[in-house]
Write a structure and sequence with these properties.
Number of strands of chain B: 12
Number of strands of chain A: 11
Structural class of chain B: mainly beta
Number of helices of chain A: 0
Order of helices and strands of chain B: EEEEEEEEEEEE
Largest interface: A-B, 25 and 23 residues
Oligomer: heterodimer
Strand content of chain A: over 45%
Largest sheet of chain B: 6 strands, mixed
Distance between the termini of chain A: 37 Å
Distance between the termini of chain B: 41 Å
Radius of gyration of chain A: 13 Å
């Protein structure tokens, strides 16, 4: 079974530039998560999708971050414009469902973003 | 709001010895899940062990076991017979089970070094 795929693995940009990250979850997984992991910290949920609908985006800086999950499969996270403090690893994860019944969350390898 | 605290930024253990990683959390919920995740260097995060709060019995997975103290809101991970491959960042995480977004909340992590 293929795991969660993410690209690119690394990205270096100048501040105020735009960047986009792509995630393809495990086939059949309805729930998709985007996390931001700043060096020395644990992952912080940015946005959670259930199929193509947003379940939680309370910690997403909506003035510069956006995400979409068209057709309820793969997803794109965009930052526009980037700030120095956006330097982090962006993790994508998926689970079969995200409801009351527990379903294991599987993580992708992450995209390491450096903003100069 | 729920919080997860890992007070040990770094721990070391001799190969074949036992080590315990600490985690405390704060919640007003009575039912929830607690997790330990492992994040090896430059590799993706994987689930180590899961505990359901309504279960009094501590979870065990091979060399990994937890000490769950619900009243004290403590959730420690014991690794027995430590191996070089256990070297990684370990994150404690919490997830509610009642209706809502089922957001995962992570601690700041403990870096485990295994000495040969």
């Amino acid at each position: 079974e293929a795991g969660v795929a993410q690209s690119p693995r690394y990205k270096i940009i100048e501040k105020r530039q735009s960047v986009a990250f792509w995630c393809n979850p495990i086939s059949g997984h309805a729930t998709l998560y985007w996390y931001q992991q700043i060096l020395g910290q644990g992952p912080k949920l940015l946005i959670q999708f259930q199929n193509n609908g947003v379940v939680d985006d309370s910690q997403l800086p909506k003035d510069r971050f956006s995400a979409e999950r068209l057709k309820g499969v793969d997803s794109t996270l965009k930052i526009q414009p980037a700030k120095l403090e956006d330097s982090a690893v962006y993790l994508c994860a998926s689970s079969f469902r995200g409801g009351v019944t527990y379903n294991e969350q599987f993580f992708g390898p992450g995209t390491r973003l450096t903003v100069l | 709001a729920q919080t997860v605290t890992q007070s040990q930024p770094e721990m070391s253990v001799q190969e074949a010895e036992t080590v315990t990683l600490s985690c405390t959390y704060d919640t007003s919920e009575s039912d929830y899940y607690l997790f330990w995740y492992k994040q090896p260097p430059s590799r993706q995060m994987i689930l180590v062990i899961r505990q359901e709060a309504y279960k009094q019995q501590n979870a065990t997975e091979n060399r990994f076991s937890v000490n769950f103290q619900k009243a004290a809101k403590s959730f420690s991970l014991k690794i027995s017979d430590s191996q070089l491959g256990d070297a990684a960042m370990y994150f404690c995480a919490y997830r509610r089970t009642t209706s809502g977004t089922y957001k995962y909340i992570f601690g700041t992590g403990t870096r485990l070094k295994v000495l040969a």
